[in-house]
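Technical annex, item 7. During the second reporting period the consortium partners agreed on a shared format for inverse folding records so that results from different sites could be compared directly. Each record opens with the tokenized structure and is followed by the designed sequence. A conforming record, contributed by the partner at site C, is shown below for reference.
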């Protein structure tokens, strides 16, 4: 595998003390941390993440131990999941269904808040009535701009 060369102007700069080129390597799979619940594991597997990468496990273990960590890996290598594993385990209760009837529903009080802000709703769903909110369909929210 190849590597991205350091530009000559940078490699020859007096402040460049050492440059080390390493060929790209394939990722190495790790094991799910013992503290990561089977419920959460199953959810990730259902979305195509069979096992974490080793660097994800190392980052997650440090995060779970409340240690500071910096991770630097190429784009799309799983940095986000690396830190989210510990956050998911520590904040999302295992066993709470994520596909329940309330998933994606407006929070309690949403219709009242919308009405209180002068945005008409279409009733019990709490969604803004067509044409009443920016990006809606139907009549514009206000008068057209002059010259429009």
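Designed sequence (site C submission):
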């Amino acid at each position: 595998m190849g590597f991205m060369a350091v530009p000559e102007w940078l490699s020859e700069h007096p402040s460049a003390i050492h440059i080390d080129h390493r060929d790209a390597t394939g990722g190495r799979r790790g094991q799910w941390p013992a503290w990561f619940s089977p419920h959460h594991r199953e959810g990730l597997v259902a979305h195509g993440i069979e096992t974490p990468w080793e660097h994800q496990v190392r980052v997650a273990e440090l995060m779970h131990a409340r240690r500071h960590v910096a991770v630097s890996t190429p784009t799309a290598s799983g940095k986000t999941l690396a830190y989210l594993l510990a956050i998911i385990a520590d904040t999302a209760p295992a066993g709470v269904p994520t596909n329940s009837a309330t998933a994606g529903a407006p929070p309690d009080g949403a219709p009242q808040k919308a009405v209180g802000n002068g945005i008409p709703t279409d009733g019990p769903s709490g969604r803004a009535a067509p044409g009443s909110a920016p990006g809606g369909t139907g009549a514009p929210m206000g008068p057209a701009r002059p010259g429009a």
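The two ends are 56 Å apart (CA to CA). The mean pLDDT is 74. All partners now use this format for quarterly exchanges.
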